[in-house]
Amino acid sequence: MEYHSVDKRFEHFAQLAVVILLVGGCFLVLKPFLTATLLAAVVCVSTWPLYLWLLRKFKDRRNMAALTMTLSLTLLVILPLALVAYNMADNVTAFYNALKQVVENGPPAPPAWLKEMPLVGKSADAYWQLVATSQAELANLEQRLLEPARIYLLAGGIMLGQGVMEMSLAAFISFFIYREGTALAGFVNVAMARLVGSHAENILDIINGTVRGVMYGLLGTALAQGVVATIGFVIAGVPAALLLGVFTFLFSLIPVGPLLIWGGAAVWLFYQGEAGWGIFMLLWGFFLISSVDNVVKPILISRSSNLPYILGLFGVLGGVLAFGFVGIFIGPILLAVAYSLIKEWIARYSQE
Fold it and tell me: What is the pTM of this model?
């Protein structure tokens, strides 16, 4: 009897070890595709109503509907990002060389409008004069500016390129998720029912609503900022206003991203001697472009998750650190889902 009990325990431990090894092995095999799979799942959940509409239009031909969704994702998101990454990589060396030449040759005389800028004009003009006349200060500026600029530009290009690759893989995976979506949904429903019992349907509704709310919030805010920025660029007479608006849309997905675009446009206007339009661009960017992030995004996201701003910020930054460029989408969604589920659990526990 004792030997039989020992054998049973050994059998259970052996089964547990086999399961752990199997799960660990599957994780190692799938780990390179985990980020792309998460992104594909997020995209498919967010656009599932559109896929169902296409499926009806194609008379339940799943391959055609899935292929149309995948190609649309490629043309609307991946291709523009690929062009941005290609142009960025192509121009990093030229920009760095031009910046190096400017620093080594010394800056020209400061423009007249610089001293007239409010608050910082006199200090900026004095420092410009110091750099223009002092070789030691110029060398110090070169050491502080050039190497960090090169590293930052290369890192940005590499991250964007990796993001394009991850998105391309996600588009490929999304085709199969769309096509087999009904079967996958049934499997998830059964698995959740086994795990959490009668609350499975409510939890899945929370996850679906949260994922869609966060995605709509991120993309809706980016689109609104891109449109407002384009209007401002056109009014101020900034060249390539539409292209800069597209860049604003893309950079809106990262914290303080739009500032790099409209701030650069304002600096260009000041450098061209258009101090009035430069001030206008600063005011337009600060009060209109950047304020969209504080108005539109909370309205869109709060309908489903009420995610606090600090968690949204951590989601974006932590997502980028953990998953690269595509973490801009994955990070906030993971935190929003966890936050919504915790709120639901606390509310249900309080009622009991």
Answer: 0.68
